[in-house]
Amino acid sequence: MVGAVVVLGVAGCSSHSSGSSGSSGSSEGGEVSGEVTIFAAASLKESFTELGKRFEKAHPGVEVTFNFGGSDSLAASITGGAPADVFASASPKTMKIVTDAGDAVGTPVTFVRNQLEIAALPGNPEGISSLKDLTKSGLKVVLCDKEVPCGAAAQKALDASGLRLTPVSYEQDVKAALTKVELKEADAAVVYKTDVLAAGDKVEGVEFPEAADAVNDYPIALLKDAPNTKAAKGFVALVRSGEGQEVLSDAGFLKP
User: Fold this and answer.
1) What span, in angstroms and rounded, lies between the C-alpha atoms of 32 and 52?
2) Of 89, 116, 121, 186, which has the fewest CB atoms closer than 10 Å, so is most exposed?
3) How far apart are CA 10 and CA 172, in angstroms?
């Protein structure tokens, strides 16, 4: 069954959930079996969890386990020897950490793109309508750490606008930044459009034009020391298939 944990480094214990409808994700060389471990950017949590359920349904006996977290921390875990089969990163820069270390097989492929959006409190009580509004005095704004793809993208958008913003905190990944707003510990956060969509009525999304200049490509790659190469290839095939792309598109991701 699909397991998912949010990690900073090497994964700990995972929690499991039951499978659901759907199928696909063929692999090369016959039937797949055993456990396959996917390290994936935190922003992929909802869509990849759904794809994991579909992969398990299509391949009875296979167990898909996910480690979700900041792409930089996941990359460091992989290069540090953490056992994993697939890495799906939220930026080419963090994927390069893995490829430069020789820990990926072949050339990573961009499978989706993602765009930033402001997550404000429900009803947008502060009247936030632009990126510049986040610089207002007294406003509690949260950003992802600059080493994390969502933080790097946010900084790129701010720099392009000539804006300076001092957040109340820098968070380890996009879900942590979003949670600050959901818990009303912050007035706003710069996250991905997909995360605003996943949060439902817990936040209110505010689009800003500068986001178009800071769109992140998401690459995926098989890992060199993958314990289950056959299942890994099957999962990557599902992600890149029409079915996988539909799930990702429904979650708010952009086509590669």
Assistant:
1) 14
2) 121
3) 15
Q: Which residue has the tokens 């600050």?
A: 180
Please compute Rg for the chain using Cα positions. 18
- Cβ neighbors of 112 (< 8 A, separation 6 or more) are 218, 245, 248, 253, 254, 255, 256
| Bridge pairing between strands 204-206 and 169-171 | unpaired
Task: Report the distance separating Cα 116 and Cα 84, nearest Å.
Answer: 28
Bridge partners, 219 (sequence order): 110
The dihedral sign for the CA sequence 50, 46, 192, 85: negative
Distance (Å, rounded) from C-alpha 213 to C-alpha 200? 25
**Would you place residue 30 in the very low, low, confident or very high pLDDT band (cuts 50, 70, 90)?**
low
CA-CA distances (angstroms) from residue 246 to 23, 31, 47?
13, 25, 10
149 close to 192: Cβ distance less than 8 angstroms: no
Instruction: Name the residue among 132, 136, 159 with its Cα closest to residue 146.
Output: 159
Encode pLDDT of 49-89 as tens digits: 999 999 999 999 999 999 999 999 999 999 999 999 999 99
Determine the pLDDT at residue 11.
Answer: 34
The pLDDT of residue 136:
95
